[in-house]
Design a protein that fits this description.
The protein is an alpha/beta fold and 693 residues long. Among the domains are: 230 residues, HUPs (Rossmann fold), CATH 3.40.50; 150 residues, Orthogonal Bundle (Isoleucyl-tRNA Synthetase, Domain 1), CATH 1.10.730; 53 residues, Orthogonal Bundle (Helix Hairpins). Helix content is 47%, strand content 12%. The strands form six sheets. A five-stranded parallel beta sheet has the order 3-2-1-13-14, with helices on both faces. A four-stranded antiparallel beta sheet has the order 5-4-9-10. The protein has a three-stranded antiparallel beta sheet with strand order 7-6-8, with no helix packed on it.
């Protein structure tokens, strides 16, 4: 199809999508290095984890690509340490097998959410060991490591020292009986396992746990503090940090640990699963033999080592403070490790590291009046978002529009549905569809001659001065917000721009009558609306990349940069693609269906109670190998059939739960309709399978 696009650096995007080509920084240019907090590799992420770091960082990564900046986005799974060993113990597997399993689940989840890492790696690699050990050795050579002998919990039955999370006992502060060795869930205070009253070994609670001394290496944070304080004050000002737990809006360091004076912190642990301690060439090397690096020491180095897995030229990113800006995204509970611990480590290492430029943190996202809980099946975890049928773009929009930037936020199914129906469908989607369908129907999909010259539209235009001025002001607001990493404000501004586009079409009276009475004006309105849609394809790309791709397909246009002003960039004679709806309405009754589906223990309990009944019925009727829809199945079932049967069984429990709770008839009917649809899908799948058997 014919394309007529204005060519220029201020129009077309030259930086590829994430992961499409190797990216290295270039001297003299703005180069952006982005990291997201590494998720623990012992569970699947929930929606709060996703918005807290990986999704937010993805938005900023994509935004910088729309500014034609060389951008690298790095993340991966944090695999070493006590949490992994404990989880593997509970699942009856090895730490390596556990990490392989959850790495795949994390990767699958992020891919479905269109989170575009340049590289999603892991910390259990040879490159990670190499870089961690080099930093440890440098700290030793620079005089920042010291040996300390401390009492630790020791299990006489297991014959080994117990890491914090292998120990439970009575909290010495609040007397909570099941306090963990690192933190009490009763009073939320951090603990030293040795202080627990009546400590118990999690491996075998009958074993006797005692105190025994052990030698460990400590990082002398107290010695690093003067240089660290100078660095924090300079970086806070240069990177325009938002107020956080380390420094306030006035540039005053408020972290209690720094105010009272940092103390040496352990960097080794008595574990098997971790980075082995390398010899320092000192008398105490033998005492460190068999120990590993503490997970918080090695985890933050994961950003560097994962970059090392991505490119052998990783030092161009990490030893380049003059040309690379490092942006780091995380939840509020990780601030200490990224503003104090990690920077202190890099400063003490002695090499010229790229250090934090800007820190972006979030508060917590809660779920329907409570908290996400994997153990209670409460909330949406990992791949379960896909099962709702809500597209990834809509998930991204809702999560980002409620991003907890300054206070905790609450996930709500009703709000999620309203965001799709009232904002995406009726505002953004309506503007795009109305303009493109009119162009397709009235001009045979070819942009007419409007009289506008290629390039920026004049804010003194005799007919549209107010419209052009408004759009240009909103574009400035968008750029200002995104440059300051105010992601939620950036998204709100995109929706204001599309709303202004709707208002423009309405005020201009775009219809057949205008085309007949004033064809020149009609062509002008169409051209300006189409060019605004082209702008929106770039503005929405960081937040909803699939929606951006859909816009570009309908426009038949290449990816563009974010402009500073509204311009005529799609020119007369350009043929657009086929207009189509970007979004579909979500039935409001699904609110109650999903509340039950993801509501927690009560739903799970009902499912457990119903399951034996279903099995007895199946046995009585001789339908042991029949699908839930009654279709006879010959031979072993395919994975697709098994998965669909499980979904039908699960949704059946949802329907029963709605009926038992005497929910409104329209809510029950919506759930029943969905159940029938799933059963019909299974019938077609079985017929297809039997036909080819």
């Amino acid at each position: 199809m014919t394309q007529k696009i204005r060519v220029g650096d201020d129009v077309l995007r030259s930086i590829p999508d994430p992961g499409q080509a190797a990216v290295l920084p270039k001297d003299g240019e703005t180069n952006i290095l982005i990291t997201s907090a590494l998720p623990y590799c012992n569970n699947v992420p929930h929606l709060g984890n996703i918005i807290g770091s990986t999704l937010s960082a993805d938005v900023f990564s994509r935004y910088n690509r729309t500014r034609n900046r060389r951008t690298l986005y790095i993340c991966g799974t944090d695999e070493y340490g006590t949490a992994t060993e404990t989880a593997a113990l509970k699942e009856g597997t090895t730490p390596r097998e556990l990490c392989d399993k959850y790495y795949a689940l994390h990767k699958e989840t992020y891919e479905w959410f269109d989170i575009g890492f340049d590289h999603f790696g892991r910390t259990s690699t040879a490159k990670h060991t190499e870089i961690c050990q080099s930093i440890y050795l440098n700290l030793g050579q620079q005089g920042y490591l010291e040996k300390q002998i401390k009492d630790q919990t020791y299990c006489e039955g297991c014959k080994k020292f117990l890491a914090d999370r292998y120990v439970e006992g009575i909290c010495p502060n609040c007397s909570y009986v099941d306090a963990r060795g690192d933190q009490c869930d009763g009073c939320s205070r951090t603990l030293d396992a040795i202080d627990l009253i009546e400590p118990r070994c999690l491996i075998d609670k009958t074993h006797n746990v005692i105190a025994r001394s052990s030698s460990h290496m400590y990082f002398k944070l107290d010695a690093a503090q003067p240089a660290l304080e100078d660095w924090i004050k300079k970086s806070w000002k240069k990177g325009k940090w938002s107020p956080n737990a380390t420094i306030n809006a006035d540039g005053e360091i408020v972290d209690a640990r720094m105010k009272s004076g940092l103390k040496p912190t352990p960097v080794t642990r008595d574990l098997a699963w971790g980075v082995p301690i390398p010899p320092l060439g000192r008398e105490d090397d033998e005492e460190m033999s068999g120990k590993v690096l503490y997970v918080w020491f090695d985890a933050v180095i994961g950003y560097v080592s994962i970059t090392g897995e991505y490119t052998p030229e990783w030092k161009q990113w990490w030893f380049n403070p003059d040309n690379v800006r490092l942006y780091q995204f995380m939840g509020k509970d990780n601030v200490y490790f990224h503003t104090i611990y990690f920077p202190a480590m890099l400063l003490a290492d002695g090499r010229d590291w790229t250090t934090l430029h800007h820190l972006s943190t979030t508060e917590y996202l809660n779920y329907e009046g409570g908290k996400f809980s994997k153990s209670k099946n409460r909330g949406v975890f990992g791949p379960a978002a896909k099962e709702t049928g809500i597209p990834a773009s809509v998930w991204r929009y809702y999560l980002l529009s409620t991003r907890p930037e300054t206070a905790d936020a609450m996930f709500s199914w009703a709000d999620c549905i309203a965001a799709n129906n009232n904002v995406l469908l009726k505002n953004f989607g309506n503007f795009v569809n109305r303009a493109l369908k009119f162009l397709s129907a009235q001009y045979d999909s070819v942009l007419p001659e409007s009289g506008d010259a290629p390039g920026p539209l004049s804010p003194n235009d005799p007919l549209d001065a107010e419209f052009i001025t408004d759009i240009n002001a909103l574009l400035k607001d968008y750029i200002d917000a995104m440059e300051s990493v105010k992601i939620r404000l950036g998204l709100q501004t995109v929706m204001l721009i599309s709303s202004r586009g709707n208002g423009y079409l309405q005020a201009s009276g775009l219809n057949k009558a205008l085309m007949t009475s004033n064809p020149q004006r009609c062509a002008q309105v169409v051209s300006r609306a189409v060019n605004l849609i082209y702008v929106l394809s770039a503005l929405i790309y960081p937040f909803m990349p699939a929606t951006s791709d859909g816009l570009l397909l309908q426009l038949n246009a290449p990816a563009r940069v974010v402009p500073e002003v509204l311009s005529t960039d799609i020119l007369a004679g350009h043929r657009i693609g086929q207009p189509d709806h970007l979004f579909k309405n979500i039935d409001e009754k699904m609110d109650q269906v999903w509340k039950v589906r993801f509501g927690g223990d009560e739903s799970a309990k009902k499912e457990e109670e119903e399951a034996p009944t279903s099995k007895r019925k199946a046995k009585k009727t001789g339908a042991g190998n029949a699908a839930p829809n009654g279709v006879a199945v010959s031979g072993p079932k395919s994975p697709e059939v098994v998965a669909l049967e499980a979904k039908i069984l699960e949704h059946g429990q949802v329907v029963r739960g709605l009926k038992e709770n005497k929910e409104p008839k329209d809510v029950v009917d919506a759930a029943v309709t969905e159940l029938k649809r799933l059963k019909a899908e299974l019938v077609l799948l079985e017929k297809s399978r039997n036909a080819t058997a």
